[in-house]
Amino acid sequence: MNTIINAHALCKTLGNLRAVDGVTMQVSAGEIYGLVGPDGAGKTTMMRLLCGALRPTSGEIHIAGFSMDKQPEKGREQIGYLPQRFSLYEELTVLENLRFFAEVRGISAQDWRPRSLEILDFVGLTQFIERRVGRLSGGMKQKVGLAVALVHRPKILLLDEPTTGVDPVTRQDFWQLIIRLVAEEGVGVLVSTPYMDEASRCNRLGFILQGRLLVEGTPEMLRSQLDERVVALLGKPLPLLRQVAKADKDVEDVQMFGDRLHLRVRAGEADKVIKRLKKRIPAEGGTVYQLNPTPPELEDVFITLMESHA
């Protein structure tokens, strides 16, 4: 596939902090790459380096073949960037915002309006083109932000936690737009997200912690690292179940997943753990409704990674 983001040995030092520490990564056209990690892991710094808002301390970035060191303007022309806190002009209408940002991008007067109307139709905001942005909901503002990022027909879309703070229905709508965009226009997308259901929609994922890219792979590949090592426990009372499970010598970690617990167990020990807990929990006064191996979730994988690099 055509590589459109190529970062090699990328480092960024902010004061005494190594915010990005030797990251090498590639993103291809037509791919959704998810950058996942906790707050402060380096996701936003990485985005700012890639779009040229920050200069790296060391390392190289090529965007659609252009060096961001030698040809930064050419590289930026290829990028649509939606930061966490995108500042629209709330006193302007939706269409006026698109016109402003299109003209900043150098789009001619004869081209900006048809492109803007095309993009607003794509994101479902055609009926709101004359509404002032300050009167829109948070989710609709994010869609305007996406429209602005797309108005100059970029090859690359950088989305920094684009759905944080919006409702689940809006999150779903936003992701449907991204998937359509990739399918119809072949745009390459790099998206950072704290939501594991969103991470599972990506073609590939990279887990970043303390500025370092720890692991990359498809969601299926990452989940396979914990095959046959996760046990689901449903019963009551949960505090007692957690206590008994944690006390087992072959249980490495216990996490709440909805109404049940996920136990991460040592490789090859799941059956033994299940057999012991089926006896110990009732003996301690608890009740077991379900206790069996379960396919690992991405949350299981990333919790394991964070613990192993703490």
Topology:
Elements: E1 3-14, E2 17-28, E3 32-36, H1 43-51, E4 58-63, E5 66-67, H2 72-76, E6 79-82, H3 94-104, H4 109-123, H5 138-150, E7 156-160, H6 168-185, E8 188-192, H7 196-199, E9 204-209, E10 212-217, H8 219-223, E11 230-236, H9 238-247, E12 251-257, E13 260-265, H10 270-283, E14 287-293, H11 298-308
Helix pairs in contact: 3-4, 4-5
Walk me through the structure.
The protein has eleven helices and 14 strands. α3 crosses α4 (109-123). The radius of gyration is 23 Å and the shape is elongated. It has two domains: 3-221, P-loop containing nucleotide triphosphate hydrolases (Rossmann fold, 3-Layer(aba) Sandwich), CATH 3.40.50.300; 228-294, Alpha-Beta Plaits (2-Layer Sandwich), CATH 3.30.70. It has a six-stranded mixed sheet with strand order 6-7-8-3-9-10, sandwiched between helices. The chain has a four-stranded antiparallel sheet with strand order 2-1-4-5. The mean pLDDT is 93. It has helices spanning 43-51, 72-76, 94-104, 109-123, 138-150, 168-185, 196-199, 219-223, 238-247, 270-283, 298-308, and strands at 3-14, 17-28, 32-36, 58-63, 66-67, 79-82, 156-160, 188-192, 204-209, 212-217, 230-236, 251-257, 260-265, 287-293. The longest helix has 18 residues, at 168-185. 37% of the residues lie in helices and 29% in strands. The chain is α/β, with parallel strands linked by helices and 310 residues long.
